[in-house]
Amino acid sequence: MHKQNFSKIIIYCFLIVVALMCLVPFYSMFITSTHTNSDIARKLLLLPGDQFFENYNRLIGTVNIWRGFINTTFITVTATVLNVYFAALAGYGFSKYHFRFKNVLFLFVLGTMMIPGQLGIIGFYRLMETFHMLDTYWPLILPAISNAFGIFLMRQFADSSVPMEVIESARMDGYGEIQLFNRIVLPMMSPAIATLGIFAFIGKWNDFLTPLIVLFDNDKQTLPVMIASVKSQFSSDFGAQYVGIVISVVPILIFFSFMSKRIISGVAAGAVKG
């Protein structure tokens, strides 16, 4: 009994240390945003300062940060919804339907994961120029429909957690294929959807290269590009940049905390059913 209690204490202490290590970068970010540029450059900052609002005023005086926040929110939410829905649809199709060259096509989809996206950026730019989509949000939203990792994740989840008996029963009840997917399969895949949603949301929210290349109007730019462009006359304004980083990180934390609960509840429900 004492050995069990001692082992639990060791485990809890280890988890607390790991949690603190994960929180240190966020604490440092918030603390740094409250100090002057000279303090940020010269000192190790452990306690909060009193320069947050001065840094914030310089930030909004340099870039329209809240316009960038709205732009990023619109792009990220729209792209995440498309990403998750079509990845679930394609993954479900690869899992439960049988057609010629299914495995070959799936291997081809997986093969695209091995090609860095930066290699195709020139071709992507020329393609968007051909379709007259430059300086619009379409190049940032439409590619979300095709996500090789999402298709792989959803297929693996559908193989293990979506029984064919449920699908056949729904078909006998008169459900069409799209109706069956939307009403029956999609709710069953909610843990995988939440997982993919977190990756898709964070990836699109932090996307820097694509909006930098395809957007020319400053009022259309996203938060990462706006924050990187914050500079004083001779050097980067670190205080203002850290305030912008704080503003950009808060939605990610909120979204992650919400979706992680969906993952845990979905896994727990599956365990109970099992």
From TrEMBL:
Domain of life assignment: Bacteria
Entry keyword set: Cell membrane, Membrane, Sugar transport, Transmembrane, Transmembrane helix, Transport
Membrane topology: Multi-pass membrane protein
Gene Ontology cellular component list: plasma membrane
Keyword Transmembrane helix listed: yes
A Gene Ontology BP annotation from the UniProt entry: transmembrane transport
InterPro entries in alphabetical order: MetI-like, MetI-like_sf
Transmembrane residue ranges: 9-30, 69-92, 104-125, 137-154, 180-202, 239-258
One Pfam family cited in the UniProt record for this chain: BPD_transp_1
Principal subcellular localization: membrane
Domain ABC transmembrane type-1: 69-259
Subcellular location: Cell membrane
Coiled-coil zones: none
Family: Belongs to the binding-protein-dependent transport system permease family.
Stated name of the protein: Multiple sugar transport system permease protein
Organism: Paenibacillus endophyticus
